Amino acid sequence: MTPPPTTCAEAPADARTEAVPVAPTADVTPGPAPTAAAAPPSGPVTGGLLVLVGMLLVALNLRAAVTSLGALLDEVRTGLALSGTMAGFVTTLPTIAFAALGALTPWLVRRWPAARVLIIAMLALTVGQVLRVVTDSAAVFVLTSALALAGIAVANILLPMLVKQHFPHRTGLVTGAYTMALTVGTTVAAASAVPVAHAFGSWRAGLGVWAGLAAVAVLPWVPLALRARAARRAATTTAAPAPRVRIRPERTRLGWAMAVYFGAQSLSGYAIMGWLAQLFRDAGYRAETAGLLLAGVTALGVPVALLMPALAGRLRTLRPLVLSLTAFSTAAYLGLALAPHGPAPLWVLLLALGQGAFALILTTIGLRARTAEGTVALSAFAQSTGYVIAALGPLLVGILYEATGGWTAPIGFLLGALAVQTTAGMVIARPRFIEDER
User: Fold this and answer.
1) Are 413 and 397 in contact (CB under 8 A)?
2) In sequence order, what are the beta bridge partners of 28?
3) CA nearest 359: which of 348, 367, 349?
4) Do the Cβ atoms of 166 and 42 come closer than 8 Å?
5) Stated pTM of the model
6) What is the dihedral of CA 36, 256, 414, 94, to 10 degrees?
7) Closest by Cα among 352, 348, 310, 328 to 421
8) Residue 347 and residue 339: Cα distance in Å, rounded?
């Protein structure tokens, strides 16, 4: 039930669109209004079905280039004669790219319309995926993979802003839709990369096929970019320059709590993707069964990704969700440590529920900002900083596993990361806004 609209703190988070007073944490300088703020309201071209279709197509691409490579890593290592060190760097490259390049996105959208930035991002993803499958050079493969990941990094940051900009009253629903698309793309790419490679007789086909999906994702944004350019020209000739507000999440407690929650959740997510199959194999499962159990975590996460944002948007506080997700993950980790073989499907289900924290934090980015400018600033800081933390997950789990020869220490490490995640979650659970932070 929607609470009565008494105070701003009690109003539904996705319905707050009033003007924002400039807080001391924002730098205000005269200049043109930011592109994100100048976008016209939702309409049949700029904010309706075309934007939604474009967002879903982009979301389908956000992990396909990563998980398809993971599925074919052995074939790529053999085909390009990658050393063990180089292969390890390739698997860490996504988090490095997401952290480093995602931080540039607010600068980009202050200068160009978001639709144009997304066109460039999807073209970079398309070209990068094509070039990396036509080379025989390991160095060129890494560089072109970085180009593809640069496109993903920018799109990661932009999607929450586009939800706030075009669908301010449907934040939960639209976030759930694109999070589900992201999860579907992740699962399909991981599951089909090897069959596609076998069908065409080369790992290059298993990786290169996803360039076509990225190219398709460009199409909806071309008319949107043209419309945005026309609207921007009209605004500059008819309206006086507006003050430019720059939100600085790195100076706020909320910004750091969001970054820590995102980072701790992503750390566990990447560790699970990288090591869960090995854990099940060590427990006595065949390689094929262990792979299916790992795929089950992603597949079962699809409905969770759809429902979690809608649920978060209806609650006045996110504390029950934060604690419930922690309980699911805790039970899964303890089960994996104590009885990894028999009840394995139950642990997979609980892991999938616990990984709903990813959908929750993406939703919370929109719920904790009043404006599109605040959303993109918070999204960039939380994700870029969070991915630096996330990069430690697979690495430290691997070090602990090799040092101890078992899974007790790695799972203990993941439980510690979960405690940090929960502490940060308690901070972001209370309704508040990045524009008001001091």
Assistant:
1) yes
2) 245
3) 367
4) yes
5) 0.76
6) 40
7) 328
8) 9
Which pLDDT score is estimated for 342? 87
Please say if the pLDDT value at position 6 is more than 60.
no
Cα separation, 413 vs 203, whole angstroms? 35
Type of residue at 200: F
Give the whole-angstrom CA distance, residue 364 versus residue 309: 8
Name the one residue in this structure whose structure tokens are 């709590």. 257
Burial (CB count within 10 angstroms: exposed 0-12, middle 13-18, buried 19+), residue 71: buried
Residue 413, C-beta contacts closer than 8 angstroms, at least 6 positions apart: 396, 397, 400
Give per-residue pLDDT as tens, 72-92: 887 888 899 887 778 778 877
Q: Do residues 67 and 91 lie in contact, with contact meaning Cβ atoms separated by under 8 Å?
A: no
The token pair at 289 is 């069964």
Q: Which helix (H) or strand (E) holds 245?
A: strand 244-246
CA-based nearest residue to 183, from 266, 297, 99, 50: 297
Among 144, 151, 161, 142, CA closest to 35: 161
367-393 pLDDT, tens digit per residue, is 998 888 888 889 889 999 998 898 888
The CA radius of gyration of the chain, in Å to the nearest whole number, is 21
Q: Under a CB-based contact definition with an 8 Å cutoff, are residues 244 and 30 in contact?
A: yes
